[in-house]
Predict the 3D structure of the following.
Amino acid sequence: MLRIELSHRFGDFALDVDITAGDGITMLFGPSGAGKSTIAKAVGGLLQTDQAYVQLGERVLADTSKLLWLKPHMRRIGYVFQEPRLFPHLSVRGNLLYGAGHDTDLARIADLLDIAPLLTRRPAGLSGGEAARVALGRALLSAPSLLILDEPLAALDARRKADILPYLERLRDHANVPMLYITHALDEVARLGSTLVLLQNGKVARSGSVKDVLSDPDAVPVLGPRMAGAMLEGHVVRHVDGLTELEVSGGLVWVPGTAGAVDTKIRLRVMAQDVIVGTQKPQGLSALNILPAKVVSLHRGDGPGALVVLQSGTDRLLARITQRSLDEMSLAPGDAVYGILKTVSVGPTDVFAGLD
Amino acid sequence: MLRIELSHRFGDFALDVDITAGDGITMLFGPSGAGKSTIAKAVGGLLQTDQAYVQLGERVLADTSKLLWLKPHMRRIGYVFQEPRLFPHLSVRGNLLYGAGHDTDLARIADLLDIAPLLTRRPAGLSGGEAARVALGRALLSAPSLLILDEPLAALDARRKADILPYLERLRDHANVPMLYITHALDEVARLGSTLVLLQNGKVARSGSVKDVLSDPDAVPVLGPRMAGAMLEGHVVRHVDGLTELEVSGGLVWVPGTAGAVDTKIRLRVMAQDVIVGTQKPQGLSALNILPAKVVSLHRGDGPGALVVLQSGTDRLLARITQRSLDEMSLAPGDAVYGILKTVSVGPTDVFAGLD
Amino acid sequence: MINLPPEGWDALWLSLRVAGLSTLLSLPVALGVAVLLARGRFWGRGILNGLVHLPLVLPPVVTGYLLLIALGRTAPIGVFLEETFGLVLAFRWTGAVLAAAVMSFPLTVRAIWLALEAVEPGLEEAAATLGASPARVFATVTLPLIAPGVLAGAVIGFAKAMGEFGATITFVSNIPGETQTVPSAIYSFLQVPGGEATVWGLVALAVGVALGALLLAELLSRRVAARIAGRA
Amino acid sequence: MINLPPEGWDALWLSLRVAGLSTLLSLPVALGVAVLLARGRFWGRGILNGLVHLPLVLPPVVTGYLLLIALGRTAPIGVFLEETFGLVLAFRWTGAVLAAAVMSFPLTVRAIWLALEAVEPGLEEAAATLGASPARVFATVTLPLIAPGVLAGAVIGFAKAMGEFGATITFVSNIPGETQTVPSAIYSFLQVPGGEATVWGLVALAVGVALGALLLAELLSRRVAARIAGRA
Amino acid sequence: EPVRVFAAASLKTALDAAAAEWAGGTVSLSYAGSGAVARQVAAGAPADIVVLAHADWMKWLDAQGVLGTDPVIFAGNTLAVIGPVGDAELALTPQDIAARLGRDGRLAMGDLRAVPAGIYGQEALVALGLWNGVAGRIAQADNVRNAMAFVARGEAPLGIVYASDALADPRVAIVADIPSDVHAPIVYPAAVTASAGPMAQEFLSFLQSSVGQSVFRAAGLQEPPK
Ligand SMILES: Nc1ncnc2c1ncn2[C@@H]1O[C@H](COP(=O)(O)OP(=O)(O)OP(=O)(O)O)[C@@H](O)[C@H]1O
Ligand SMILES: Nc1ncnc2c1ncn2[C@@H]1O[C@H](COP(=O)(O)OP(=O)(O)OP(=O)(O)O)[C@@H](O)[C@H]1O
Ligand code: MOO
Ligand SMILES: [Mg+2]
Ligand SMILES: [Mg+2]
């Protein structure tokens, strides 16, 4: 368990947060200047805030009311900074091993991050993305009891990001290292996060489990309309033709790839904008996944869009459609409808092994 | 017109490119370490490559065969680096005005980038995103005749990115400043780019107009399957209910927002994964946009997915569906089908005023 | 107050003038030389480097003697200076300024040089892409960034100039009111049995002035550095 | 070859030993003091700063005289050192080492200090988050990064030690083969009419050695800096 | 164990020669200004013999209680006014000196407080009634040799140094002798220190012996005044 209580002033900017995060990955999400890096620094011990209480598991790392302030190196917190901060005088290998006792995991992590060919190089010659990957590997290798990642993937291209995400997942699930993860990318939030903290202007605007916050229509204004979506839970039924059939509470869903062994619990993220609402069961469509559902509520926004909350089995689905469609179909709460998901819109980065 | 002919070696890495870019924005897209920043530096005059020929309009900036190598400040090239590189001893205002003769545009650009409240601050106190915005503003204000942007938006959150993109567009369209734009984000490519250069390993893997490269099924392996899509051209017909109706060659399409005045030419990007293929005209769906089309060709990939190229009027559409659906619907070239686009999947960042 | 013979006060006043002027005059030259040494790649760089450091390596008396040989009234350069500019150095306070400048030069140059090497080249690149000529880059980016180093160089030069003795007395001798700096006066009184009281008075003054300058400059330089780091 | 009387060679050899040892011994202390001054926030920092710079500000003869007063064989500290450690400084080559160390100390400290201020704090932070204690951070990050500065400090200290005269001759006198360094020897020969040949020979040697060290060190330091910058 | 002699630097030529002549043992000679030597010996310098260029410092040393014997005077010297070689004789009159110094010429001397030759020189100038005319024109050097160098290099048209030094530099010549009765007698006192070894007295005696004295005469020094 990670407990963070901070307050601090920087001129006009006032930070004042109280965050409790369970195991797994706590995502800090919020606009530029919201105070994400400031929180990260305070937790890492790098910035002494005016008031601070930080507790990690049993260990109290900071308690300004008791004048307690552990030095960074006593906190056992790995940190990936917004800039790579590689040691210029050490080779890539030297950087990676700096915080590691031994080099047992070096080869594996170097392979994973695709930096094995760089091991003998100096940081000055690395490209932006290469440097970011080395910084990530260095923190991973230091075997921390909390990992703080400040936009660790921002400098990476989509493919590399996709390569590294599963590793962070594995770390989350198996290494039992809680993480504080700062990002601007909601796919990372949905993919990795257990807890989501939405920050605005130094304050917590909303927080809770990723699943709850993402599928809460009220959070949409903070997340941005194109980012809204819901989370489904299910388990693997079978693998056919390179697809995986999952059973969710509302029915069966196909996802590409062979996601987990039979019976593995799985989380699916379904973006609101990827859900089509149909009043009749459609025929002859390339979209494979059609879930019967009931309209729970309708939320008209300021713009042309509207959010439809659907109940599908025990899960909630969000669908973002135009108000025009809403009117044409004259939807109302209680209506029986179909939620249509394009199979491929539930792509690999939106399927993940569950935590629970 | 921008002509770039370079070759250079860094140990194992060999750069060898020949790029011709028209006006507008030339996007350099490629994985980390592909050589994007190296090209940018050579064009900017910051890194003297082994061989170089760089011509911008009438001006030859570099020609190593003639021992010509203009110094950076003689090139009139604005540069936004991967790191902000703000002058620590100047205020934000001082940074912004460094390359500008006067401060006529200061207020406008500061507002646009949401940095007006920071003007009197020092760079050291800025958050990562704030610094990135100041760096962008500084380059914009220097009135360059070419603007090089090396992942300028990577540190920005989605909302800010969405705020800044229209400005870059306006710059492209009205200021008549060609740009060399490096990014990992295909939405930026599609939104801003005229020319797209795909780099891999120091070589040009593909290049051409953004429209051609993005809708070329053969480019999909380089772009990544989730990034494939096509580009439609059309013009504004009318505005209703906060939606805009566009006429494309294949029919009528609704997009959210009031995109341009009536008759404005418009480009639409339609991601392959957002297109559903139907063999019958669907009824009672929340998706408003249904275009009759003909199957042109089918491309089965290695994984579970397949690409369907559709002809809709004079435009091509790409649809990414599962091979399973392909088989169930037994699609074949020449079949008459319907391409179904969810209105909202044609979101604001995928609609843009055309260049042509 | 400290009880000094009048020539002690004269000496203090002269030392301040000499050290101040030598610092002021040599600073731009030191800046130029530091830039050449830190950034330049030219033939003779090694020689320039050696020349700059010579006064540090040589016993001060030898430096003074070399100055006398090179710039005395009968030496070609000395004659030239006198005939062209009416500038006489030997036995003049102007010569004391020169001696102080020469002796403190390596210290000033090194301080600036080190500061120059710490400037991040990325910032200078950025300035160039914003259209700034090398001269403007230097004036508006490099110089402000090395300002603490330049200040440090100036102060250490000033301190050294206040303490310089051997080269000064050898080159311009010890003429009360004209070339008798504090160290020369101290030397003079130190050699008199029973002159200690005056010596300690002078020492206290010299130390006070130089350390005052030092601390003031450090304060200033911290403030400049803090400004740069954005802490103020 | 340069034609020197035997005491000239003795002086050169002694100077090398004295300058070498003084550099070696004072370097760790200078490093510590530079760290205290650059990073420390403690009461008395200003006093320490002043003390370190004193030898720069004072005429060397005064520094030598102060050393004599403080550490002479009849002075309390001198007596204590002799009785406790059997260490005699005044009039011994060990004292010459001390004088050289004291005189070059401010230069060495400042060079290291400037280098310390140029170290990016972000890197030390990163090391701490990787679990490195402050001592380890210093040894594995700070120290390698300031290595060029430390080297520069050592070399300027060595050069200064080679040229030091006033404090040395005052504190340990000018005993051939024992405390007669090159500058003292030069002083002696300057007293002899016709001693110039020997003087210039000694000057040439001293300059050669010191500039050699300087250039060597600069080469080294460039290489270190290049390694750090990843150009090699 | 050599006999350690701490001596005034202006005696280097003479004492080096004397040490070379002495068959009784080896001598280690350490030269510095008289004041520095005196202070060092008082501070416990390992000197067997101390040799100075001015009686006052020896008196001071005696008062410190570090001397083993009473000082002896083993040589004397006279002062001379020097000019660049080839210059005409100078009459010791205010007019002639003023003429020779010209508008801004300097009279080079040892430091008037610190260097014995300077102290004697000032005394002489005062006694000769010349002081007021030159008081503002003195260029003081930190030792006699440097004063002489000013004249040798043409910086100063006149200088006052020991006659013994003047003879040794071919670039300067004596333009006027200063009578030895217008200043305190120039004497070189020497003494054995309280901590001296057994050979010290022997070397000191050698300096006073006829062999020693002839070495001093050869170096331009004179017999000690009676
Ligand atoms: N100074 C240098 N010395 C050695 N190798 C270098 C140097 N600069 C770049 N490289 C190498 O050249 C290749 C291309 O680097 P470049 O910075 O152009 O990549 P990039 O495409 O911009 O990557 P990213 O998206 O990660 O910023 C990389 O393999 C990099 O390691
Ligand atoms: N040292 C400082 N001095 C003054 N203000 C500061 C300082 N550090 C941060 N701030 C301000 O505090 C606010 C929060 O900064 P922080 O770096 O935590 O933002 P962030 O959420 O990480 O943003 P980004 O996504 O852009 O990195 C910003 O307004 C920033 O300008
Ligand atoms: O050696 Mo002296 O004491 O300068 O005459
Ligand atoms: Mg941040
Ligand atoms: Mg790059």
Remarks:
- Chain E is about 40% helix and 25% strand.
- Chains E and B do not touch (no CB pair under 8 Å).
- The pocket of adenosine-5'-triphosphate (ligand 2) is lined by residues A 10-11, 13, 30, 32-38, 82; B 125-130 (CB under 6 Å).
- Strands of chain E lie at 3-8, 27-32, 49-51, 72-77, 79-84, 107-110, 138-141, 158-162, 172-177, 186-192.
